[in-house]
């Protein structure tokens, strides 16, 4: 008997709860910086969720999707931070 499915179920629950907390912070964040950090953490949690589900389903079809979510999360966070600090994204 292996413990891997139980560990993955616990990880799945923890990441889901973390995503819920990030969504709440994204909605009610008192400042724009809090909302931006919550969005970045939400992208990171989505990437982790995809990887955990892929390990749980014993598949390799969604690793590219996880990589795309991570890259889009980084680029969008950098672009939004630049926009909120300077007022424009591209010089």
UniProtKB/TrEMBL annotation:
Location of the protein in the cell: Cell membrane
Example GO molecular function: sodium:proton antiporter activity
Pfam families: MrpF_PhaF
Gene Ontology CC annotations of this record: plasma membrane
Membrane topology qualifier: Multi-pass membrane protein
Record keywords, A-Z: Antiport, Cell membrane, Ion transport, Membrane, Transmembrane, Transmembrane helix, Transport
Keyword Cell cycle on entry: no
Annotated TM spans: 6-24, 36-59, 65-85
Keyword Cytoplasm: no
Family per record: Belongs to the CPA3 antiporters (TC 2.A.63) subunit F family.
Family matches, as PANTHER family: NA(+)/H(+) ANTIPORTER SUBUNIT F1, NA(+)_H(+) ANTIPORTER SUBUNIT F
Protein's recorded name: Monovalent cation/H+ antiporter subunit F
